[in-house]
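call fold(seq) -> tokens
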Amino acid sequence: SNIDMVLGREVVRGILKKDWEKRRGVHFAASFAISGYAILLAGSCFAHLAYTLVISKPHLAEQLLIKYMTTLVIKLAFVETATATMKAVLAARTESKKVP
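ret:
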């Protein structure tokens, strides 16, 4: 949240949601600058990730991949299944209460 304030995430998000590209003048310049800032920030983050995984700590890539796959399996096998089951149970209960 402090990082978001420093980077101006809410300001950037607000300006990117508006359709200022079709206007001229200050609005166009602000939209262009914010779009460039967003692209630069995303590119910098990707470059930092690539540097960290390839040059700085190559062994980290394997550990992150294992953690990612473990999290993905747990989410798909257990969390999503439990969520879908609970939605079905609640829907069935609600439907059975409606029937006289």
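The CA atoms of residues 53 and 64 lie 9 Å apart.
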